[in-house]
User: Fold this.
Amino acid sequence: MMSFTTIKTNQKTFLENYLRGTGKTLTASDANARFGIQKLPARMSEFRSAGLNVKVTKSSKGTARYGVSARDVNGSRAKMFA
Assistant:
C-alpha cells in the first residue's frame, strides 16, 4: 500500500496524475485501501471547483465511482495541481 507519508506528492497532484485522462476510476473505498486517501469525494469536489470535469457513476448499490476527463471545462489539458 502506498500512503502519503511515503511519497513526495500531495493527494490532489497524485489523483490528477492517476485519474485525469487515463480512463481509470476510483471509489472512495478503493482510494482509502490502495492509497490511504480518506476523503475522495472532498478531493473530487475540489477538482470540480478548479474546473476539472469529474465523472461520477453510481453502482446499483449506490457506490460512487469517480473519473476525471483529460480536458478541463475550458478544453485545456494543462495540469491544475503541480
Notes: The mean pLDDT is 90. DSSP finds three helices and three strands in the chain. Strands lie at 26-27, 52-58, 64-72. The first helix runs from residue 11 to 19.
